Amino acid sequence: xxxxxxxxxxxxxxxxxxxxxxxxxxxxxxxxxxxxxxxxxxxxxxxxxxxxxxxxxxxxxxxxxxxxxxxxxxxxxxxxxxxxxxxxxxxxxxxxxxxxxxxxxxxxxxxxxxxxxxxxxxxxxxxxxxxxxxxxxxxxxxxxxxxxxxxxxxxxxxxxxxxxxxxxxxxxxxxxxxxxxxxxxxxxxxxxxxxxxxxxxxxxxxxxxxxxxxxxxxxxxxxxxxxxxxxx
Length: 232
Prior knowledge:
Layout: H1 2-28, H2 39-67, H3 73-111, H4 121-124, H5 127-155, H6 166-186, H7 189-192, H8 194-231
Helix pairs in contact: 1-2, 1-3, 1-5, 2-3, 3-5, 5-6
């Protein structure tokens, strides 16, 4: 159970990272991305769920086999496949993030601010949002390093050298997850995105108010016109 929980826990954090990227793409402008903002969570979260199911299933089978004094290799291979798929998913995700960043920089240098979303300009220039981008990058890299370590570790089997090395386990497993969790809690997306969404809500509120009074004015003009016709 301990091995199973240690293995699947970071998958939940990875899912939040996938979801956050769609918000970042909207903030900078969907035109800078190769795929639509909502495509990121729709593609990567199901992949994360699949890797999570494989890891949990394999870990449960390996644990049950070990307690029954049976060969746990089948469960190990399934768990290893889930971890390898998670590493592959994270790698593709990081490549798309890098591509999005490069495309954004190139289009900004060529087109200026018009290449970016104008509604979220205040959010993009806020210090909280910029630090959040750094925190998200650190968290993603830490989860990737941890996942690669687990693949190599389990690839050697339960009697391998890595699984018995406590120093490497603490540094490449425990420390990576702790850093990934702490930076995203210190710079939580709910706090770092708040300024932009509050600003957007105010803009939409003002626009709605203007539309209401414009409609009210048109109704008054039509009513006065009807009265003039009746008097005539």
